[in-house]
Sequence to fold (684 residues):
Amino acid sequence: MATLSDIGVAAAINILTAFAFFLAFAILRIQPVNDRVYFPKWYLKGLRSSPLASGAFVSKFVNLDFTSYARLLNWMPAALKMPEPELIDHAGLDYAVHLRIYLLGLKIFVPIAFLAFTIMVPVNWTNNTLEHSRLTYSDIDKLSISNIPAGSKRFWTHLVMAYAFTFWTCYVLKREYEIVAAMRLNFLALEQRRPDQFTVLVRNVPPDPDESVSELVEHFFLVNHPDHYLSHQVVYNANKPWELVNEKKKIQNWLNFYQNKYERNPSRRPSLKTGFLGLWGHSIDAIDFCTSKIERLSRDISAEREEVSNDPKSIMPAAFVSFKTLWGAAVCAQTQQSRNPTIWLTEWAPEPRDVYWENLAIPCVFLTIRRLIAAVAFFFLTFFFMIPITFVQSLANIEGIEKALPFLKAIIEVKFIKSFIQGFLPGIALKIFLLFLPTILMMMSKFEGFISISALERRSASRYYFFLFINVFLGSIITGTAFQQLNNFIHQSTDQLPKTIGVSIPMKGTFFITYVMVDGWAGVAGEILRLKPLIIYHLQNFFLVKTEKDREEAMDPGAIGFNTGEPQIQLYFLLGLVYAVVTPILLPFIIVFFGLAYIVYRHQFINVYNQEYESAAAFWPDVHLRIIVALIVSQLLLMGLLSTKDAAQSTLLLITLPVLTLWFHRFCKGRYEPAFVRYPLQVD
Fold:
């Protein structure tokens, strides 16, 4: 088990790592050669020019202004300087609300930590229960509820604090839900109505032998929505024309390259060879070759478009239907269009950038089958991932293994190695095991048939959170307790096992401290360094970039994935709420993460990441729900823990908390969630 010195070693390693990352970032970001890596958003918006275009040769690559090195940390106040309305205009509402998740963590846990360290830590510390027990423990565990003797009246302190923490969390959640809902409604009103707010996606259009899909859609809506129907656009399978369009873009890029080359040296027209990879063959004029090929591709694209529009097999049973009024679109999107509920399925159309085209034509019956298959696959993925989780916990509980397997003691008894293994290695090993999980879950979501990228990300995020809850949280507690108290499990009677587990759960806080430091502190610092994008950009810029368009593609950072970032944030909410009462020493580490992440990601959203789509903060109900789940889990675990401590009266009084929390969630769901699933008819 990790001791105080082990946590100190881990903290020192992660603090030094984070400091090194921040220092490297502060130096690299002011070098002219890296400007496009650390400020790509401004370049893509056309609001920043390259410092490589002017000045002395050396100053184009290295910053020779030594006074700027004295202001290495000025990026932090600069990231906080931009007001929220300007941030919304610059980065979008989704990113602005994403930052509020970190603020929400600070609003919840800073007051909770103050109360916990003022009241509960002294109550826990002034006992000697663990010293007189046979359990494996460390000095940090004396700060937890495990140090309170069974049947003690001191448990009333934890009961009162559980009520206080619940009421405070619910108050902050309600206030934040109200603010975000108002931000969403104001954002939609100020946008002067996007076209997708007047558009409905229609799927599973039934086949008709006498009419085409386009004619059938027009006829159906003219009959059923005569006063509001405006127009429609049928969805086509245009994979082949799309391939030609992409090829034309590539040739156009080469043409731009050769034209730029010719402009720099008009005395010699550029040429290329017709053989394999341009290595041999006849030499021809490059500009004429690219021009003729673009003209041929343009003719082929027009021909393919004509063929696709006239080929019934290329027409998908789906269409985007636009209405004259928001009222007409709302009625169509929220009502059943046919007696058969499996045809003429309607829903609000996603924003054009948000559409996931590959899933538009999946039949309704296949959606059910696909989701069943994905659910079964996810179950087995979650179950079999317990194997690496068990391995990680075996690293975190060396002392427990030493007692059961004493022949390993001589190998791992060196103090520094032992501190490094217990304090640092478990967190980094768990992060490595979770590296490829988001990609797998996104593939499952795509297989299920969701028709928008935002829906895919929200589905993947829900599964990722469930996976983290089962494997990282519960799995770490169960397997870690088994390893930690292995000697007791072997020699105790079965009726003592629940009590041993109940006492050991709070003591797993030391493992989660190491995880928060590795994934939270060092992970966030690594995010701002952008080491991987930095290396890739310079490699592409040196070997592959031919035109300014290539350079833009090389420096494009893409968007931050909601499906990966948000579930990891929610894990910290879960850990904070669960351990706030039982092991409050975890709270300062979580607070540091939220504060650090807020500054770092505010900088990234302002200077780096682009929006892939704009959902107007449609994800906030999921954020709220997962915090509610974390709150209920913390209450249930505290009830179970107190039941092993002979505190039956406290357990009975705690039953009220989950009921009140569920009632609060139902209130918020009815009061605020409609603003996130429908477009209001009232503009102001």
